[in-house]
Specification:
Blueprint (H helix, E strand, L loop, with lengths): L1 H50 L4 H7 E2 L19 E2 L5 H11 L5 H12 L10 E5 L8 E7 L2 E7 L8 E8 L6 H14 L5 E3 L15 E2 L5 H15 L4 H13 L7 E6 L12 E7 L2 E6 L5 E7 L1
Parallel strand pairs: 1-3, 7-9
Antiparallel strand pairs: 2-3, 3-4, 4-5, 5-6, 6-12, 8-9, 9-10, 10-11, 11-12
Helix pairs in contact: 1-3, 5-6
């Protein structure tokens, strides 16, 4: 009888602990959903506030349909983009724009964006374009974007449910003096992996293009040091975003199998030095439909991060 009571008590204790864990997970999930909902509401309100500063002519330039194919055009070179040039905005409108983009970019991210822009000159920001695909003032799903040479920052906001895509985020540098942290982290990954088969020699990768079928090494085949470093690289890539956007991206990561579902490859030359120092190598990581990369073979830097 005593033995039965002990077993019964242990089973009951285990059940209570399991229920407690489940309730905790459910609570955390609800808190995350509420936080995301609050952020998207705030983002829609701020984008609406920016749009309300525009006159009719400016609005016509800025606003586009959500399904406009230009929203997903991945272009690193300079030149005209969909939207209104920042140079056409007055001081009040620029302040509203900056307040909006700062909901997407962290302090470091906004600083890095300005450094990218300044590579084209101190007044180059006038040539960058702001576009809104869809109109949040009408309760529509929408995407707000800043884009031009070596910089495309966009966030898609979905009113109901969750977005099944992200980006494209395009970053670059010419000359290749920026993004040192990212390059050093990738070089450390190569060193830690101690696996020459990760390199597809003589073949260049193109930033913003998906990894070709048959390329890459699965996460499970990396040693533990390389696995840890790949997670570090992912976290480092997310540093340019605010915590709210980081949370969204990490959820996309989990929906696509997590970092353990990654497939990675280095391309072209052996990655031994940064692009600025003459390195001619590229990197690609595919995690389900989630993609991030680095391209340095062309003598300057291109990055992309997107889900589609």
């Amino acid at each position: 009888m005593a033995s039965y009571e002990i077993v019964h008590t242990n089973n009951l204790t285990t059940a209570v602990k399991t229920l407690s864990i489940l309730l905790t997970l459910i609570t955390l999930s609800m808190l995350t959903l509420n936080a995301e909902s609050t952020f998207e509401t705030q983002f829609a309100q701020q984008v609406s506030a920016f749009l309300n500063t525009l006159d009719d002519e400016q609005s016509e330039e800025c606003l586009h349909k959500l399904d406009d194919p230009l929203r997903w055009k991945m272009q690193y070179t300079g030149g005209k983009r969909a939207g209104i040039a920042i140079g056409k905005l007055n001081r009040e409108q620029r302040k509203a724009f900056e307040k909006t983009i700062r909901l997407v970019l962290s302090a470091e991210g906004w600083d890095m964006a300005k450094q990218v822009i300044q590579q084209d000159g101190n007044m180059a920001i006038k040539n960058y374009y702001v576009a809104c695909f869809g109109d949040p003032r009408h309760g529509e799903d929408f995407a707000f974007r800043l884009a031009e040479h070596h910089l495309t920052i966009i966030h898609l906001s979905v009113r109901d449910g969750k977005a099944d895509e992200f980006g494209p985020i395009l970053l670059g540098a010419n000359p290749p003096t920026l993004w040192k942290k990212d390059e050093k982290a990738l070089l450390k990954l190569w060193k830690d992996a101690q696996d020459p088969s990760l390199l597809i020699q003589g073949k260049k990768a193109i930033a913003s293009e998906a990894m070709p079928k048959g390329d890459g090494t699965p996460y499970a085949e990396l040693n533990s040091a390389a696995q840890q470093q790949l997670q570090t690289i992912w976290n480092l890539r997310l540093r340019i975003f605010t915590p709210q956007i980081q949370s969204i991206l990490n959820q996309h990561l989990q929906y696509n199998g997590g970092i353990k579902a990654a497939n990675i490859a280095f391309y072209n030359k052996t990655p031994l030095k940064r692009c600025e120092d003459g390195g001619k190598w590229d990197f690609n990581c595919q995690i389900g439909k989630l993609h991030f990369d680095y391209e340095g073979s062309r003598g300057h830097i291109h990055f992309s991060l997107w889900l589609r």
